[in-house]
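Aim 2 progress. For DNA-binding protein, the working sequence is reproduced below.
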Amino acid sequence: MSRTTRLLTLLQVLRGKRCPVTAAALAAELEVSERTLYRDIAELTALGAPIHGEAGIGYVLRSGLFLPPLMLNADETEAIVLGLRYVDQRGDEVLGKAAADALAKIAAVLAPAAQEALHNPTVLPGPPAYCYPENVVPLNVFRQAIREQAKLHIDYADVNKTPSQRLIWPLALGFMNEARVIVAWCELRDDFRTFRTDRIAAASEQGQRYPGRRSDLLRTWRQRMQLDDAGRFTPDKN
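Predicted structure tokens for this construct:
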């Protein structure tokens, strides 16, 4: 294995690890000595790869990794382009701009062989099929509350336009075909609920963080809905 291939493989291995992994385990997986592994990690870190390591715990690749050339083949490039095009169509203004910025960054580092798949893909998302209802509360209010694990007090109206006031723990925003929704734990119902954002007349933070970890709550919701980490339906096989 060439040095360049070994470095790229090391990045790929770290990208697939959700928890810190020891130098010994990485060296064994790559079939190199620990001395070589330490040298490779030092070189990748010097190049800007956000690798974090702690003695006795191991190494983990933090978010924000650059995409060096040759990392994406034609199929991977088209998958990313298709996904970003869908985001541009179905996301709000913030996500649309983020998708365009991400695509520009990817284009800047793609190898020449992958540029054709970027500019002339074989797959297209098609035109948007629905005009989303207008939101009274900006989606950024929900984004901020989700990231901060902040409780939100909302004024909500159901499908029959019956008003209610809820104290929710916002977990995620969903972009459906016909509406945008917020997945949350509802204190009034003592259960998970999904609220259409266009039916929320007002939302305000209560200065309180909800207990536990958002990731754990979201995992429980996915299990309840029989969804995997990518949001795909996984019916019970029993």
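Confidence is low (pLDDT under 50) at residues 234-238. This observation will guide construct design in the next reporting period.
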